[in-house]
């Protein structure tokens, strides 16, 4: 029995897939997905900058193919994401002369974007990350173009437009650093307000880009409880474990010019040493221990990628590193921790 069979008793188990996987250019990884997971999400191809590059131009090929991959393999598929300050349809915020658009124009553009994307996959996509990363860690609202041009109610409008386009789709709010108490409070406030306004909101996504010393496990668990208490599903949406230190840990160094820092930032070039491997396992088992305890509140756990080789963390926040954040290694083999996670359930 694999993860999807055992953990699947309680929640779906997903992975973010890139286009190589869905086009058959990475058959081993595709096999890992269909063997171990029962849910997928597109890593990039449904984001605004890719799917809607110009006002009257949509690029559907990759998203269509991703939906087909899910259908062909009997996988649930989640849509990511409709409104986000990063990788946005950049044209949306300005007129041709470069001036910032009016509130009414941005609402209209956002309406058309959401309506066209969501209705294309109506009945096929189980739920959408409607608004991604709207809140700062301190609980203030992120000053994204959507916020600055439309105002705080861009969040409610996005949920209304998405619901109108596919009344049966689940709708989620998604963010990182969800263990932060300030962010937790604001997310709960937004969700309760959306409900009070009569909007559909089904779940809160905790990205969970975790590392060896963050987040604080008690705060993370407190957030699961607080989110569940809002009366919505809790989803772990982008799980991975960054095993490398952050450039912030080397403050003052200009990492782009100092390649010796690159080495310091990448201490595990030839693989994790035994200490690193132990820490990796411990962290994953700590988190899955939490997911087990909260198995009746959590409805999905999705990893952000499939194998270490394809992980975005090889290139973020520093490019060209060798990172070890996922459960499947560079040779497409399951790491020993997979069996240990399964045994927890
Ligand atoms: C990342 C992708 O994995 C990268 O390939 C891309 O270059 C940048 O975005 N939070 C999110 C995801 O919600 O969409 C991001 O995905 C990772 C952080």
Automatic annotation (TrEMBL):
Boundaries of every GH10 domain copy: 1-344
Catalytic reaction list: Endohydrolysis of (1->4)-beta-D-xylosidic linkages in xylans
GO biological process: polysaccharide catabolic process
Keywords recorded for this protein, A-Z: Carbohydrate metabolism, Glycosidase, Hydrolase, Polysaccharide degradation, Signal
EC number, UniProt record: 3.2.1.8
Protein family membership: Belongs to the glycosyl hydrolase 10 (cellulase F) family.
PANTHER family documented for this protein: ENDO-1,4-BETA-XYLANASE A (PTHR31490:SF90), GLYCOSYL HYDROLASE (PTHR31490)
Protein name: Beta-xylanase
Organism annotation: Marseilla massiliensis
Organism lineage string: Bacteria, Pseudomonadati, Bacteroidota, Bacteroidia, Bacteroidales
């Amino acid at each position: 029995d694999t993860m999807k069979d055992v953990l699947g008793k309680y929640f779906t188990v997903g992975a973010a897939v890139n286009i190589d996987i869905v086009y058959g250019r990475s058959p081993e990884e595709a096999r890992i997905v269909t063997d171990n997971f029962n849910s997928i999400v597109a890593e990039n191809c449904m984001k605004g900058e890719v799917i809607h590059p110009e006002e009257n131009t949509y690029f559907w090929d990759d998203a269509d193919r991703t939906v087909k991959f899910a259908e062909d393999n009997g996988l649930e598929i989640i849509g990511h994401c409709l409104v986000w300050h990063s990788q946005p349809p950049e044209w949306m915020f300005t007129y041709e002369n470069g001036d910032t658009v009016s509130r009414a124009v941005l609402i209209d553009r956002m309406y058309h974007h959401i309506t066209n994307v969501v209705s294309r996959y109506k009945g096929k996509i189980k739920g959408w990350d409607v608004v991604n990363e709207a809140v700062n860690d301190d609980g203030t609202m992120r000053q994204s173009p959507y916020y600055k041009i439309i105002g705080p109610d861009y969040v409610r409008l996005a949920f209304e437009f998405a619901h109108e386009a596919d009344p049966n789709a689940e709708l989620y709010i998604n963010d990182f650093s969800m263990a932060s108490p300030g962010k937790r409070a604001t997310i709960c406030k937004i969700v309760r307000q959306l409900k009070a306004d009569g909007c559909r909101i089904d779940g809160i996504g905790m990205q969970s880009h975790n590392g060896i010393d963050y987040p604080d496990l008690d705060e993370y668990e407190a957030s699961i409880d607080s989110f569940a208490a809002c009366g919505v599903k809790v989803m772990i949406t982008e799980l991975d474990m960054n095993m490398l230190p952050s450039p912030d840990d080397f403050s003052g160094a200009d990492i782009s010019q100092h390649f010796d820092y690159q080495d310091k930032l990448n201490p595990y070039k030839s693989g994790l040493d035994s200490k690193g491997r132990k820490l990796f396992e411990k962290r994953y088992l700590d988190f899955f221990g939490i997911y087990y305890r909260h198995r009746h509140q959590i409805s999905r756990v999705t990893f952000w990628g499939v194998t270490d080789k394809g992980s975005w963390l090889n290139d973020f926040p520093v490019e060209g590193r060798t990172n070890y954040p996922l459960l499947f290694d560079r040779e497409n083999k399951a790491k020993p921790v997979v069996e240990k996670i399964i045994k927890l359930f």
